[in-house]
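Q: What would this chain look like folded?
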Amino acid sequence: MANGILGLGAQFPEFKKTSVVSLEKGNEFYDITNEDHKNAGKWMVMFWWPKDFTFVCPTEIAAFNQKFADFSDRDAILIGASTDSEFVHAAWRRNHDDLRDLKFPMLADTSKSLAEELGILTADEKVAYRVTYIVDPQGIVRWVAANDLSVGRNVDEVLRVLDALQTDELCPCNWVKGEETLNA
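A: My prediction, written as structure tokens:
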């Protein structure tokens, strides 16, 4: 989308992309599609970063990895993504202590086709902004958050919003799981 970020209520675009799922020789790569989470009846949380081998990005990726079990407990498939290739992702994972043991795939959008369809590329370098999508099991975008290139996101906030969406109720400002929701 050339005129803006794909937003709430939209169908998440179709895609089939190679991702890095392991550092084990011969098992490094796996193709992921937009249908995988729907077929599993799960939510999808996809977060994008600008470039591999940078400074803020690994802090976010490591933070998502630390909370991987929390996403799994919420029936959510977690996917990290950038426009770097699967080979660059694999090299970065091998060379960065915080990325070696990732529990979620690193999606490679080398053609930038998915990032372009999502409308999340910078105008100048054509790298992805720090955008996070929460997509429901039917493939509908339920939450989008975008950060500038220099600002890392808050993984706990992503989990809080996922919790709120999964209640299917009205949740007040700063609501957290376990608190009362609002009665309509």
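The CA atoms of residues 7 and 144 lie 7 Å apart.
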